[in-house]
Amino acid sequence: MRPSCASLCQRWSRATLLLVLAPCLTSGVARAQQVTILHDGAVPQAAYAARRLSAALIERGCRVAPAPAGSDYLISLALRQETLGPEAFAIVPEGRTISVVGGDQRGLIYGALALAEALRNGTPLESI
C-alpha cells in the first residue's frame, strides 16, 4: 500500500524541522567547565588541599587543567599570614577567579575543604 500524500508531507515536515533545528539544539550542548588550581606544589599541605578540591570539582563534572590558558575558572590557594590568624581562612570570589587564602597551612586546608564541601553540596562555581 502506498503512503498517502498527507503522511508523506507530515514525515517531510518533521524531517525538515529536525534539519532546521539541529544546529540550534547542538549549539547549546553543555560542556564541562575547565578549572585550574594554582598552588605551591612543593608545600605538602597546599598539594593536599589542591587534590581534595580537584576531586570535588571532578565529581561535579568539571575538568581540572594544569595550565590556566583556556580555563573558565581559576582557583588560587595561598597563605596570607599577615592578614589572617592561625587556622583562619577566607574564600574570596573575584569574577572567574576564586582565591582560597589561609592564615597558615591548616587554614589553607580548611578553606579548600570548605570550598570542596560547598561544591559537593551543589553550589555552582558562579555562586561562590
Report what the structure shows.
- There is one protein chain.
- Mean pLDDT is 85; it is low at 14-29.
- This protein has three helices and five strands; from the N terminus they run αβαββββα.
- With 128 residues, it is of the alpha/beta class.
- Strand 1, helix 2 (44-59) and strand 2 (63-65) form a beta-alpha-beta unit.
- The chain has helices at 5-27, 44-59, 105-120; strands spanning 34-38, 63-65, 73-79, 89-94, 97-102.
Write a concise synopsis of the structure shown.
With 128 residues, this protein is an alpha/beta fold.
- Determine the strand fraction and express it as a percent band: 15-25%
Q: Compute the CA-based radius of gyration.
A: 23 Å
Largest sheet: 5 strands, mixed
CATH architecture: 2-Layer Sandwich
Low-confidence sequence ranges: 14-29
What class do helices, strands and sheet pairing give? alpha/beta
Number of domains: 1
List the helices and strands and how they pair.
Blueprint: H1 5-27, E1 34-38, H2 44-59, E2 63-65, E3 73-79, E4 89-94, E5 97-102, H3 105-120
Parallel strand pairs: 1-2, 1-3, 3-5
Antiparallel strand pairs: 4-5
Helix pairs in contact: 2-3
Question: Notable features of this structure?
Answer:
Chitobiase, domain 2, alpha/beta, 3 helices, 5 strands, globular, five-stranded mixed sheet, single chain, 128 residues
